């Protein structure tokens, strides 16, 4: 009965309460929220078009007209960072959402069914884990071609295995609980037991891992954009901005420094949020 009652409480609400109790997680959530709001309300925070070129103002240092300076085409760096946040966050959230759904379901299926199904699925996941995430993403994007959709697929593909492993472990324990046995006795289908009774009880762990891997997804997107396999220009992305400004780094360091700071801020915030939630959901650390 306790597990059934627990599944009726929203996992997002539980995580929000745990986040509020942890200062590091609260700070990370606050900074992440600021970045998200800045991306959403970018048109209100800048009057510059991120793709508008002004050759007469190219490589201008930070000034009242251009808050963070301009790039080699005279485009406003501040506006490109704001609009680039939209692309980076959209790709990161979409790819991790896909990885959470696919990896989580595979992990639940492997843990619940066991036997050959478990061995087959986890062998495939172990094979995926043998490749570094950036190398795997590079291979997928190189095959599919650079585009926003292919980038989401590539990053999601690299993150499926960790979600499958994190979903499988608690499933092995939960499937032995009395309320699962009671469901089987009542004639519930395996699909209903997995989706309505097991999934809600392990969703906390999947969401916590998602917050940690979101930072990795944004970093991977920036890395792929830096080597020319990201979203095609002139769309602004943080990694693409660093690549464009790399050749002029000594003469115009702001072209590299400010996008790098944006990546650093969101990654630190997401890692603080994820680490705080992980510690808060860990029974050994919950009361510390």
From TrEMBL:
<dbReference type="Pfam" id="PF00528">
    <property type="entry name" value="BPD_transp_1"/>
</dbReference>
<dbReference type="InterPro" id="IPR035906">
    <property type="entry name" value="MetI-like_sf"/>
</dbReference>
<keyword id="KW-0813">Transport</keyword>
<keyword id="KW-1133">Transmembrane helix</keyword>
<keyword id="KW-1003">Cell membrane</keyword>
<keyword id="KW-0472">Membrane</keyword>
<feature type="transmembrane region" description="Helical">
    <location>
        <begin position="151"/>
        <end position="167"/>
    </location>
</feature>
<feature type="domain" description="ABC transmembrane type-1">
    <location>
        <begin position="85"/>
        <end position="274"/>
    </location>
</feature>
<comment type="similarity">
    <text>Belongs to the binding-protein-dependent transport system permease family.</text>
</comment>
<keyword id="KW-0812">Transmembrane</keyword>
<dbReference type="GO" id="GO:0055085">
    <property type="term" value="P:transmembrane transport"/>
</dbReference>
<dbReference type="InterPro" id="IPR025966">
    <property type="entry name" value="OppC_N"/>
</dbReference>
<feature type="transmembrane region" description="Helical">
    <location>
        <begin position="124"/>
        <end position="145"/>
    </location>
</feature>
<feature type="transmembrane region" description="Helical">
    <location>
        <begin position="198"/>
        <end position="218"/>
    </location>
</feature>
<protein>
    <submittedName>
        <fullName>ABC transporter permease</fullName>
    </submittedName>
</protein>
<dbReference type="InterPro" id="IPR050366">
    <property type="entry name" value="BP-dependent_transpt_permease"/>
</dbReference>
<feature type="transmembrane region" description="Helical">
    <location>
        <begin position="254"/>
        <end position="274"/>
    </location>
</feature>
<dbReference type="InterPro" id="IPR000515">
    <property type="entry name" value="MetI-like"/>
</dbReference>
<feature type="transmembrane region" description="Helical">
    <location>
        <begin position="24"/>
        <end position="45"/>
    </location>
</feature>
<feature type="transmembrane region" description="Helical">
    <location>
        <begin position="87"/>
        <end position="112"/>
    </location>
</feature>
<dbReference type="Pfam" id="PF12911">
    <property type="entry name" value="OppC_N"/>
</dbReference>
<dbReference type="GO" id="GO:0005886">
    <property type="term" value="C:plasma membrane"/>
</dbReference>
């Amino acid at each position: 009965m306790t597990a059934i009652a627990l599944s009726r409480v929203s996992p997002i609400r539980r995580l929000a309460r745990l986040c509020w109790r942890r200062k590091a997680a609260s700070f990370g959530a606050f900074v992440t929220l600021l970045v998200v709001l800045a991306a959403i309300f970018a048109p209100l925070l800048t009057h510059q078009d991120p793709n508008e070129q002004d050759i007469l103002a190219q490589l201008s240092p930070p000034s009242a007209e251009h808050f963070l300076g301009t790039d080699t085409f005279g485009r406003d760096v501040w506006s490109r960072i704001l609009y680039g946040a939209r692309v980076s966050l959209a790709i990161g959230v979409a790819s991790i959402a896909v990885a959470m759904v696919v990896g989580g379901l595979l992990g639940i299926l492997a843990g619940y069914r066991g036997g050959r199904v478990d061995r087959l699925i986890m062998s495939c996941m172990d094979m995926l884990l043998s490749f570094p995430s950036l190398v795997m993403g590079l291979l997928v994007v190189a095959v599919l071609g650079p585009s926003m959709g292919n980038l989401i697929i590539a990053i999601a593909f690299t993150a499926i295995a960790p979600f499958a492993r994190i979903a499988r472990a608690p499933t092995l324990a939960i499937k032995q609980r009395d309320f699962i046995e009671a469901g089987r006795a009542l004639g519930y289908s395996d699909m209903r037991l997995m989706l309505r009774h097991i999934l809600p009880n392990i969703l906390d762990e999947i969401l916590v891992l998602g917050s940690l891997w979101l930072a990795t997804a944004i970093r991977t997107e920036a890395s792929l954009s830096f080597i020319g396999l990201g979203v095609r220009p002139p769309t602004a992305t943080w990694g693409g901005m660093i690549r464009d400004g790399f050749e002029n780094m000594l003469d115009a360091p702001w072209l590299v420094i400010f996008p790098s700071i944006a990546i650093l801020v969101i990654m630190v915030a997401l890692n603080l949020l994820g680490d705080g939630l992980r510690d808060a959901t860990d029974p050994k650390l919950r009361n510390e």
